[in-house]
């Protein structure tokens, strides 16, 4: 990869780990990714191999059944996935979003039931927040669960759920107290398992990008949930979500930053070999200056992203920093993609060139995890509070 500056946040053990992660994505993901794009999901075998390699739940404590590494190990996995431009594996959501909810708020029985199998790739996790009429506005959800004796009866639907089609366990966000003083005080989280009567999965959704990452609709029709399915305390779900969302936003920033670096390298190699006007494109001043601009923006952004990784590893990253990282890096990823496709010319519009996939994959980064417009509002609140 192109030199993007000295990175001081990783130690020698991290560097050794990175080599093994890079080999995994090269050997077990890159060569199969085009096939998975046609299928609309990656294989179960890939999940199991990732588990065997210790790439799932890397920063989940060993005493809970995880690998026992740190968040920087998780960041390395996300970066290396971005460096092969393969968006299919939903490992980050499974490992750094779903598993932490269970370890942070789950009972010992829930942790024992799910975490070891999730770390092994035997159970795939998803989280279901978004609904047809509720995206960034989480308080607008309609999916609900009412108590029936000791059980809960779940009804509703979710959409755009990553890992949804292959999921074995889904954290479902539902209203449990419609009379609460605000919707935020009446939301709970539930662990819904594959095979539960009334839980149905819709079709794999056909997206403009991230074609190998399964995304589905989920339906809940009178799903009877035992008391053990409640994750954490009743009516505390919204506050759990608010605590965990900064990490989700940082994940997006990390992946966006790494993909910017990949795009720059891919474009540099193309420009070195492509000839026009009697010389290689890399010798044309306009193109050279555009590449200089892109590298400068990426290097500056890399420094900020690494700062956020370090702060999060020290448990000091707040909502403002995570929101800035997500907004800035996903926005930059889209700008870089647009410029790089332009530098490729007609070739950049052809799907046989990976840069075209990077272009269509980039857009959703500004949408999920809270749209970038919401990120700006969160940052503004921190400025003026």
From TrEMBL:
Residue ranges constituting the Acyl-CoA dehydrogenase/oxidase C-terminal domain according to the UniProt record: 235-382
Cofactor: FAD
Annotated keywords: FAD, Flavoprotein, Oxidoreductase
Cited PROSITE patterns: ACYL_COA_DH_1, ACYL_COA_DH_2
A GO cellular component entry from the record: mitochondrion
Catalytic activity of the protein: (2S)-2-methylbutanoyl-CoA + oxidized [electron-transfer flavoprotein] + H(+) = (2E)-2-methylbut-2-enoyl-CoA + reduced [electron-transfer flavoprotein]
Residue ranges constituting the Acyl-CoA oxidase/dehydrogenase middle domain according to the UniProt record: 126-223
InterPro entries: Acyl-CoA_dehydrogenase, Acyl-CoA_DH_CS, Acyl-CoA_Oxase/DH_mid-dom, Acyl-CoA_Oxase/DH_mid-dom_sf, AcylCo_DH-like_C, AcylCo_DH/oxidase_C, AcylCoA_DH/ox_N, AcylCoA_DH/ox_N_sf
UniProt cross-references to PANTHER family, sorted A to Z: LONG-CHAIN SPECIFIC ACYL-COA DEHYDROGENASE, MITOCHONDRIAL, MEDIUM-CHAIN SPECIFIC ACYL-COA DEHYDROGENASE, MITOCHONDRIAL-RELATED
Name by which UniProt lists this protein: Long-chain specific acyl-CoA dehydrogenase, mitochondrial
Species of provenance: Scylla paramamosain (Mud crab)
